[in-house]
Amino acid sequence: MKIFILAHTHSDKDLCAKLSNQISADGAIWIGEKCDFDFFGVEDLIHVDSNNSIKSGRRLSDHFDEQVVIVGLDDGFTGEILASFSVSAYEPVVWGCHGFDYCKDDSDIVLQKYGFGGKVLYTSKISSGCVQFNSKAIDSSAREAKNPSVVSLDGQDSVSFEILESVESSDENKDVTSADVVVSGGRGIQGPEGFESLKKLAGKLDAAVGASRAVVDMGWIDYSHQIGQTGKSVSPKLYVAFGISGAVQHRAGIQNSSVIVAINTDRNAPIFDICDYGIVADWKEVLEKWVSV
Amino acid sequence: MKILVLAKQVPATTDLTFGKNGIVNRESVPKTVNPDDESAVELAIQIAESVSGEVVLATMGPESASEMLSELGAMGCASCCHIFDDSLNGADLVATANVFAALAKKVNAGMVICGASAADGKGGLLPSAIASLLGWDCLNQVSSVEDFSSEPIVVFNYQGKKTKAKVKNPSVLSVYKTVAEPRIPDVMAVLSAPQPEKLAISDLDINQKALEFDQRCEVVNVENVKKERKNKIWEGIESFSDFHAELKKEGF
Ligand SMILES: Cc1cc2nc3c(=O)[nH]c(=O)nc-3n(C[C@H](O)[C@H](O)[C@H](O)COP(=O)(O)OP(=O)(O)OC[C@H]3O[C@@H](n4cnc5c(N)ncnc54)[C@H](O)[C@@H]3O)c2cc1C
Question: What's the CATH fold of domain A2-154?
Answer without folding.
Answer: Rossmann fold (3.40.50)
